[in-house]
């Protein structure tokens, strides 16, 4: 399981980091764990599944 930072997720999804943080707060993108600074880390497979779903629903 590869973990991704907020910045990596934002780059993959093509959105700003604040959008990724909001998705995590709203439990639309679930963080697998947090780093030493308390920032969320996401499972790469979960992010890819979210991206596929978002594209099917009309985009991010």
From TrEMBL:
GO MF entry, a single one: DNA binding
Chain ranges of the DNA-binding protein Rv2175c wHTH domain: 2-35
Pfam families reported for this sequence: Rv2175c_wHTH
Official protein name in the record: DNA binding domain-containing protein, excisionase family
Higher taxonomy: Bacteria, Pseudomonadati, Pseudomonadota, Gammaproteobacteria, Chromatiales
């Amino acid at each position: 399981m590869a973990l991704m930072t907020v910045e990596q997720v934002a780059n993959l999804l093509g959105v700003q980091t604040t959008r990724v943080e909001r998705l995590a707060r709203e439990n639309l993108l679930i963080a697998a764990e947090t780093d030493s600074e308390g920032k969320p880390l996401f499972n790469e497979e979960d992010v890819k599944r979210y991206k596929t779903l978002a594209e099917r629903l009309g985009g991010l």
